[in-house]
Amino acid sequence: MEFDRELIVRAQSGDTSAQEAIVKHFSAMVFRLISRFFRSREDVEDLAQDVFLKLFTRIDQVRPDENFSGWLARVTVNTCYDELRKTRRRKLAMETYGPPAHTEPSVAPVEPDLHGKARIALQSLDPKLRIPLILKEVEEMSVEQIARTMGLTETNVKVRLFRARKKLASILGQR
User: Fold this and answer.
1) Structural domains for the chain
2) Can you list the positions of beta strands (E) in 50-99?
3) Residue 80: is it exposed, middle or buried by C-beta count within 10 angstroms (0-12/13-18/19+)?
């Protein structure tokens, strides 16, 4: 915690070595969170770059004595939300106004294994349900941490987790 505080104060004063140290220290967490939502390495790298760009453009707003890693996790999740919304809008625009889609033959196995089915089912969940579930089950965050990260109440997080698990069980039961 003292390490984070010192780095933040130095970065706020314009110390580029402190900014580099922040990137080194927190890049694994940022990459891990983003990779829960996006599979492409290029997407993950681009979004991580966006997260750190947002961090350093707002570094003066960071309070050194508060939970920096929680704040950075929230910026990361919100960046993922923003990108998911943009992707959904682009996809809808292409389906509506773009050329007709040509289906290419798939090289994927006809019937995915259990792990593949679970991953496909998880990806089909609405991001409002998928994100808290991933943060809870994969990132092993507490309900309180998820609430702070996502800007929700703990009750809302619990409701979303319940709905996500119920929907996931329903999807997996169908297949």
Assistant:
1) 1-102 (1.10.1740.10), 110-175 (1.10.10.10)
2) none
3) buried
Q: pLDDT class for 1, splitting at 50, 70, 90?
A: low
Confidence of residue 38 (pLDDT cuts 50, 70, 90): confident
Q: Quote the CA–CA distance of 9 and 7 in Å, as a whole number.
A: 6
Report yes or no on whether pTM surpasses 0.70.
no
Q: Which amino acid is at 81?
A: Y
Q: Which long-range contacts (CB under 8 A, 24 or more apart) does 129-132 make?
A: 129/160, 129/163, 129/164, 129/167, 130/37, 130/164, 131/37, 131/77, 131/80, 131/81, 132/157, 132/160, 132/161, 132/164
